[in-house]
Write a structure and sequence with these properties.
Elements: H1 2-11, E1 13-15, E2 17-20, E3 35-38, H2 51-67, H3 71-98, E4 105-106, H4 110-113, H5 116-119, E5 121-123, E6 134-135, H6 136-164, H7 170-177, H8 180-189
Parallel strand pairs: 1-5
Antiparallel strand pairs: 2-3, 4-6
Helix pairs in contact: 1-2, 2-6, 3-6
Length: about 220
């Protein structure tokens, strides 16, 4: 299970770099020697074009590990992945509550305010009393790396859900068309499978609503 462990560890670990303001991609002349946080090494919008590919490869390795599990173990891991997804939803909520597009500098306690240190592992995080500069470059990099991590976690959850709840293939659908009477009988007994929805607050378009799907119309006899 090394692939799964490595993937989960990587997407939950943030490695902060402490540089000077003058070393940032958009160098600031004023107080150039002041320490500043940087995450530019984890976003493909700057120099690290391979970061996204590395996360994708780790996700594929995690899926290979999950494929070796029996159904009971796979369902248990699936529930843990969904719990991690909820933590990402929470960090997004916190992030947007403290994010401002026109800000050039953020409070020194920004990382603590969004609970990044509480929800995940943050290496090299200093006390907010150290007065380390947090600029728009760092916040944009944090947004980008969160987006990459969240994207591949969602993909892994969808792939595991497909294994546990396989959809009907085109070949299976064609086979049913050859015996429509059997399909009609089976439809009355089987309920459609509902795929995993990573956004539980959203109702999937096209899905009918039924307050009591178990009720069946009874045939009335002719007098």
């Amino acid at each position: 299970m090394n692939g799964l462990i490595q993937f989960l560890t990587t997407i939950q670990t943030f490695n902060l770099h402490i540089v000077t303001k003058a070393e940032l991609k958009s160098p600031i002349k004023q107080d150039g020697d002041k320490p500043a946080y940087s995450l530019a090494h984890e976003t493909h919008f700057y120099d690290s074009y391979t970061y996204k590919s590395e996360i994708r490869v780790l996700k594929d390795m995690a899926l290979i590990d999950l494929l070796s599990l029996n159904d009971t173990s796979l369902k248990r891991e699936f529930e843990q992945l969904k719990k991690l997804k909820e933590r990402f939803k929470l960090i997004w909520t916190n992030f947007h509550q403290h994010y401002g597009e026109l800000k050039s500098e953020y409070p020194s306690n920004f990382i603590f305010s969004i609970q990044l240190d509480y929800l995940f592992i943050v290496n090299n995080l200093q006390s907010d009393y150290k007065d380390i500069y947090i600029g728009d470059e760092f916040v944009e990099s944090l947004h980008d790396t969160l987006k990459i991590r969240d994207k591949f976690l969602s993909e892994l959850i969808s792939e595991v859900d497909e294994i546990l709840n396989p959809r009907e293939t085109f070949e299976e659908w064609m086979a049913k068309q050859k015996s429509p009477e059997q399909v009609e009988d089976a439809t009355a007994e089987l309920s459609p499978k509902i795929p995993y929805n990573p956004e539980p607050s959203r109702i999937e378009p096209g899905r009918p609503f039924c307050s009591n799907p178990s009720r069946l119309k009874q045939k009335t006899s002719k007098v």
